[in-house]
Amino acid sequence: MSSVSTSVLREALSALRAGSVSAQAFCLTARSQPAVFKALPPKFEEVWLNLVDRLESSALFSEESCSFSQTNLLDNLGLVLDKAEQQLPHTP
Predict the structure, then answer these.
(1) Measured between alpha carbons, how far is 38 from 34 in angstroms, rounded to an integer?
(2) CA torsion angle 21 70 75 39 (round to 10)
(3) What gap in Å lies between CA 6 and CA 21, rounded to an integer?
(4) pLDDT values of the chain reduced to their tens digit, one per residue, 92 residues
(5) Are 21 and 12 in contact (CB under 8 A)?
(6) What is the 3-state secondary structure (H, E, C) of the chain?
(7) CA quadruple 48, 51, 53, 56: dihedral positive or negative?
């Protein structure tokens, strides 16, 4: 039995923070991991996709704006991943 992992999402988020992938590339990856969210309560996917949508919108701005803080969005995405990892079954 294989376990579901957030590692792809975690790596994509790290790459986005490092500037080695674009927000658009991250958003594609962030939406391409349905198995992770199927293994979690539905609220996780709803919150995750809401943050991804906001990140995608914030990418239209070249700097932090009043309504979109990309740094805060990335921090919140990291928090969702932290919570998801606590909920997912672990394999020894």
Answers:
(1) 6
(2) -60
(3) 18
(4) 346 789 999 999 999 999 999 999 999 999 999 899 899 999 999 999 999 999 988 777 655 555 667 889 999 999 999 999 998 876 44
(5) yes
(6) CCCCCCHHHHHHHHHHHHCCCCHHHHHHHHCCCHHHHHCCCHHHHHHHHHHHHHHHHHCCCCCCCCCCCHHHHHHHHHHHHHHHHHHCCCCC
(7) negative
